[in-house]
Amino acid sequence: MTALFDRDRHEPLAGPVWDAGAARAAMERIVEDARKAFAPDGLWPIHPADAEDGESGPLTSLYFGAAGVVWALDHLAREGAVGPGPTFAEHLADIEVRNRQFLESEPLRVALGAGWQTRSWLLGDAGVFFTRWKAAAEEAVLPALAEVIARNTHDPALELMWGAPGTMLPALSLHRSTGAACWADLYRAGARALEGSLAHDERLGADVWTQDLYGSRVRYLGAVHGLAGNACALIAGRELLDPGAWRSLSSRLARTLEASAIRGASGVNWPAFVDQPPDRPLLVQHCHGAPGMVTALAALDQPIDELLNGGGELTWAAGPLVKGANLCHGTAGNGFAFLKLFERTGDDRWLARARAFAMHAVRQSEAQAEELGRRRYSLWTGDLGLACFLWECVRASARFPTVDVL
Q1: Is the pTM of this model over 0.90?
Q2: Does 182 belong to an annotated binding site?
C-alpha cells in the first residue's frame, strides 16, 4: 500500500501559540531586512537553495527573483501589513532587461527544449510587465503585456508557471481593475484553449491535461505544473465563461480530483502525476500533493468537501516541511490549504491550524537566516512569501500571492 506521505520530509509541529503581534513583528523584520539588503547592481543576493547549475548572479523573476520581492514589498506596504518604505519599483525596467537575459541564456534554452519561450507569468515577461504596471504605475507596459498574454494562449506547457493558465491571471486582474473588454477576451481565449486541450484518459476514467515541459510530456496533477493550477485559473474567472460550459467543465474537474485521489487512515493525498509509480513517495507540498490540490480547488462549486477535508487532514498529519518556511514547497505553502478550508467551511479549526503552521514557519525562517547569515529574498521560495502568508493569517483570509491576489 502506498504511504500517503514521507515522514522524513516532515518534522513535528513546534512553536509558540498564535500571536498576531508576533506575526506582525516577523513581517516587519522580513521586510526591513529585504529593504536593507537591496543593492542596485546586485539587486538581492541569490540564496544557495535557489541557485541552479552554479548560478551566482541575482535572480529576477516573479517566482524567485527581484520582481517577486518588489511585488511583495509593494503588496505588504499597500495593505498596511508593514510600515511604509521603499519597494524599489523604479528598478523594474532594469529587472526586466536582466530577466530577459536569463530567459535567453543557453542553459534555459536547453532545459526548455522545443518549448522555449520568454512569455510566462511566474518566470517570464508577463510577471515583470504586470509588476511594473502595479508597483510602478507604468501604463505604457500594458500593450506589451497584452501581446505576451495573447501569444501564450496556446503554449504547450499547459500549466501555471509557463503556460496560458498563468498568463490568464493578469488578464483577469486587469479586466477587474480597468473594466476593459480586451482583457476579458484574452482570459476567455485562454480558457477556451484549456477546455479544448483537456482530454479523457481511459485508464484514469477522467480528464487530464498533458504538459509538454522541459523536453518531456507528463500529465501533472499539482498546483504549479498540473491540473490543479489550471483549474485554479479557470475557477478564478468562471463568471466570464458561458454558464453551461462552466458547469460541464466544473464537473469534469471534480471527477478528476476524485479519480486521482489516494485515501488512507491519515487523510487523502494525490500523486504528482498520473501513472506515478507506486514506489515513488507521495509529496505533501503546494507544488505537488494535497496542500496545493486543496488550495487550488477549494473554490470549485462541486460537492468535493470530503476530498478537500481529507487533503487538509493529511497536510496536518504530515506536519511542517523540513525544507523550510516557503510557499512552493514549505510550511507556509502548506498552511494556505488550512486557510482555504477555513474560507470554504467557516470552521475555526482550520484557521487555528494555519496559524500554528505560521508560528512554526517563523521559527524555521529565523533559524535558517541565522545559520546562513541572511534571509532568502524571494516570493515563492523565500521569506517574502512567508510574510504574505503571515498577513493572510492575521487577516483570516486566504489569498495566495500572485494567484489569488495580483
Answers
A1: yes
A2: no
